[in-house]
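Lesson 9: reading folded outputs for more than one chain in a single document. The general rule is that every protein is listed as its sequence immediately followed by its structure tokens, and records are never interleaved. Here is the first one.
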Amino acid sequence: MTVPARPLALAAETGAGGVLLWAVLPYVALAVFVLGHVWRYRYDKFGWTTRSSQLYESRLLRIGSPLFHFGILVVLLGHVGGLLVPKSWTEAAGVGEHTYHVTAVVLGTVAGVCTLGGLAVLVYRRRTVGPVFSATTRNDKAMYALLTVTIVLGLAATAAANAVGGGHDYRETVSPWFRSILLLRPDPALMAGAPVLFQLHALSALLLFTAWPFTRLVHMLTAPLGYLTRPYIVYRSRDTALGTRAPRRGWERTG
């Protein structure tokens, strides 16, 4: 049997472990992410919810939830731009490397700190408010742990590469590796050359996306658009002894 030359070249460049981590694991995570959501939607529609705990406590929720959600939105938009938009495109648009780098670091750091701060408030709320803690499952705890590790590693990679170290241009390693995965032409050698913190951040993100379909994070992929067209729910009393005022037209009691 003839073995294709490309897999042999990949193994020679990065080793079997590198191929497994950076050329096989991403597709496993992607398959679980997609098929897991299909399975969840088909067999667990009633579980497709955030399991809101706002009724139990709202003061801390009003602080932590906006911080986390707005922070994570900026983080996700930054990752989409940084991973999917090639460096040559931003330079062709007149955005120099220094300008892009400073903007990405400042916005990414602020958004990451807000996300981590909001997550800390939400975790504190779940641990200290009795009814909320009672409604917290082991699945929720694992999800919070994965989220925290992923965010902390992302901030640590940014700080180590830019604030402490001499800087690392992830758009020459991580970004092209990510695009090679999407184009079905994986190049694990690119990721193998990235700093360890960037590698750990990528691995934690892959684990998070693998667990995603089986947690309350599924609510991020849905929007309650049906509420815009759903008719009003009318409540009418059947007790004739209630009320002394004649009902308005259309609100007469049914019996």
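And here is the second record, again sequence then tokens.
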Amino acid sequence: MSAPAGNSAPVAVVTGAARGIGRGIALVLGEAGATVYVTDRESREHRHSDLPGTVEDTAEQVTERGGRGIAVPLDHRDDAAVAALFDRVRAEHGGLDLLVANACNGNALPFTPGVPFWELPLEHWPNLMEVGVRSHLVSAWHAAPLLVERRGLLVVTGYADERSEVVGHVFFDLAMNGVTRLARTLAHDLRPHGVTVLGLAPGFTATEAIVAALGANPPGADSQEFPGRALRALLEDPEVARHSGRMLPVAEVAAEYGLTDVPAAPAAGGA
């Protein structure tokens, strides 16, 4: 990862990074020496889940890996707080090299396969569409001028299913297809300004939620850091713009760049 001219390290914002995919991405960016603003509503002062991990834990781990982690406790339903985050990034750095829009609340409610949509709670909608598709868009809206300053990279995380089958349930399927379209439409608007936009679709990953449900080292699961390794390869590729507008499965990125997974990182700290 090359630092932009006049800056000691690339500057990134990773949303929804107290645990899960966002945490793994932030840790890999820390190893690359990046300054990473880590956002999440899960903080040491305000806990919303029994799962391990807070925004402060991840930021400290980013610093331990060699980067500079900055914890920003933030609920992405709060537009004013999101605006304040990017105002802070502008004041402190003048631009942004990478936004990873990852915040989502898709695991907040259990899902039983085979249950018809009319028997699912409507709370799935705000959890996936508001803290998910909309929060990706709002973060991108605020980040876009900063990314233009650095000709940066904007990544939205989602799910890719090339079989075009229903993914999970109706709310999840709508949200993930929405993220895929969001990558395409944001790329359309930002491409003329030198900013590359793409989607990154992790596979089955040993997140804290998966480990809690299935136990440590579930068979066939990628480590939390595997999506981060894929993202770093894309970020360091001077020809990354060829992927603009696409939703890229992590496995496809790994095959292209010759990546292998790493042993699962320790569970996120803090309680």
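What the second record shows: The chain has a mean pLDDT of 91.
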